[in-house]
Amino acid sequence: SQTIHQWPATLVQPVGSPLSLECTVEGTSNPNLYWYRQAAGRGLQLLFYSVGIGQISSEVPQNLSASRPQDRQFILSSKKLLLSDSGFYLCAWSVRQGADEQYFGPGTRLTVT
Amino acid sequence: DAKTTQPPSMDCAEGRAANLPCNHSTISGNEYVYWYRQIHSQGPQYIIHGLKNNETNEMASLIITEDRKSSTLILPHATLRDTAVYYCIVRVKLGGKLIFGQGTELSVKP
């Protein structure tokens, strides 16, 4: 069966510090991968999605970047965090080419202080 | 992708059916209706999707009106564990992105 992992589960970082969140998927190959952010407890916003290694599409201009160094690994990064980067970050995957469902990870709750 | 409108909150008694409405009046012919739910502090969970026919699975039933401008998600026997935010999303099936709105916060009460 497929599983998706995210770490860390929670993170408190000062403004201006770097960020690296990691997501890995097991039990599938060539997945589509997604990063979402959820602020104020409602309404997920799609940040990035990837259809393959090194292929990243950005949905909104922002202080964050994403990379996909391996087929089942998706990393969300920032060089300098802003207060507005606080939120609940969710990674998701789907089967490539027309999946009905996206499967979400447990999320990382980031607080920027 | 078409926009959806849902009531912000609903209550339901435990053991009764929960009927969650969604309006999607601008839906186009190749767009599907998807439902996800998010239990507090967890990632969203897929529930069901449909194009124009009613659908049923082990979790819920989806009723889509004939003109496809609205739909209803039915949880036939709601339990306390069904308390969550329910999102109705309209998207193209192939490569369509999930755009989450505010959803409906369903509270199942004993």
Fold and architecture overview:
The complex is a heterodimer of chains A (113) and B (110). By secondary structure, chain A is mainly beta. Chain A is 0% helix and 57% strand. Chain A has strands at 3-7, 10-13, 19-26, 32-38, 44-52, 55-58, 65-70, 73-78, 87-94, 103-104, 108-112. In chain A, the strands form 2 sheets. In chain A, strands 2, 4, 5, 6, 9, 10 and 11 form a 7-stranded mixed β-sheet that branches. The radius of gyration of chain A is 13 Å and the shape is globular. By secondary structure, chain B is mostly beta strands. Chain B has strands spanning 9-13, 18-23, 31-38, 45-50, 55-56, 61-64, 70-75, 84-92, 104-109. Chain B has a 5-stranded mixed β-sheet with strand order 1-9-8-3-4, with no helix packed on it. Chain B has a 4-stranded antiparallel β-sheet with strand order 2-7-6-5, with no helix packed on it. Chain B starts with 8 loop residues before the first strand and ends with a strand. Chain A binds chain B through residues 34, 36, 42-46, 49, 59, 88, 90, 92, 97-98, 100-107, 109, and chain B through 34, 41-46, 49, 85, 93-95, 97-103.
